[in-house]
Amino acid sequence: MSGYQSEKRLIIDYYKALDSAPSSRITHVLESFTSSNYIWRGFHPFGLQTDINQISEIFWKPFKQALTSMQRREDVFFAGTNFIDKNSSIWVCSMGHLIGLFDFPWLGIKPTKKLTMLRYAEFHKVENGKISETAFYFDIPHLMIQAGYSPFSDQKAAHIIQPGPAPHDALLFSDAAVAESKKTMDAINFMIEDLGQWDSGLPLVEELARSWHDDMIWWGPAGIGSTYTIERYAKQHSGPFRAAFSDRTGTGHIARISEGNYGGFFGWPNFTAKPTGGYLDLPPSNQIGEFRVIDIYRREGDKLKENWVFIDLLYFFKQQGIDILNKI
C-alpha cells in the first residue's frame, strides 16, 4: 500500500484556501479543488449538491458571514483506502469544530455575538489530484443549544463541547503504519458485524464489551448527548435507542477507512428504521426514517475506546413531519 501524502496535501491546501477565502472567492476555491463531477453531501437542510455555485451560495457564504473570523479547530485528520470498494479509492477524513463569533443570523438561528462552535466531520474522496466527493456532516442542534435554543427535550446523556481524542495524536499528517491501520479496520468491522444488526442474543452490556473497552466514551450528537463507560452508554443511549426503533435495515456505507489507531465511515443513509417506541420528542410512529451518520473511532489495543458520532437528527425529524428549523 502506498502512502497518502498527495491526497493529504490536497485537503490541507483546500482547507487553508477555503477557510481564509472572502465570500467573493469561495466559489473559485471550490472550482480549483474539486472535479467536474463533484458530489457534496451535507446535513439537512442542505442535502446532496452537485453544483459548486449552489454549495457556495447555500452553505459557505451564509455560514462564514454569520460566524465572523471563522477558523478551523481540527482534532482528527487521517486517510485510507475504502474498505467498501475493495480499497480502490482513497478518502481523507477531518473532524473538529468550525469556530467564530456568531454575529449574524444563520438558518433562522439568532446570533449571540459570542464565540460559537459548529462540530463537524468530513470525508473527501480524492481522484486525479481533485476532490470528487465530499460528505460534510455537522451538528446544527449543537450550535442551536449554544445559542440558547432547546431543539430536543428528552436528552438522556450529557451536552458538552466535545474534545478530540484523549492521546492528542490524531492529526496524522505523516502516514501511519499499515499494520496498525489494519488492526483498526478489523476492530471496526468486528463491531459492525457483532453489534450492527442488534441480534447477537447477548445481554446488551456483554454484547458491547466484545467490541468496546469498559471505559469507552461515546461522543454523541446534540439531542442524544455524550456518555462514558459501557454501563452508562447502554443505559443512556444504546438501550433506549434499540427500544425506540424497529424494522432496522442492515448497515450500508459509502466509505469506511482507517489509518493508525483511527478510522471511520459514513452512509447516505447508513440504515433506516421506524420509531415505533417513540424517540426524543417523537411519539411512536410507523414512518420509516433514514439515518445519515458519520462515525469516527479511536482504537486502543484490540478494542474501540472513543467514538465521535454525527447523526442528521434534523433530517430524521423532518421525515417524521417535524421541521425543527421552521419552529425557531
Write the layout of secondary structure elements.
Elements: H1 5-20, H2 26-33, E1 34-42, E2 47-49, H3 52-66, E3 67-81, E4 90-102, E5 115-127, E6 130-138, H4 140-146, H5 178-195, H6 204-209, E7 212-219, E8 227-228, H7 230-244, E9 255-259, E10 262-266, E11 271-273, E12 289-291, E13 293-300, E14 303-311, H8 313-319
Parallel strand pairs: 1-6, 7-14
Antiparallel strand pairs: 1-2, 3-4, 4-5, 5-6, 7-8, 9-10, 10-13, 11-12, 13-14
How would you explain this protein's 3D organization?
This protein is an alpha+beta fold and 328 residues long. The chain contains eight helices and 14 strands.
Gap between N and C termini: 50 Å
Number of domains: 2
- How would the global form be characterised? globular
Question: Largest sheet at a glance?
Answer: 6 strands, mixed
Please provide the ordered H/E string of secondary-structure elements: HHEEHEEEEHHHEEHEEEEEEH
Query: Can you identify the CATH class of the largest domain?
Result: Alpha Beta
Number of helices: 8
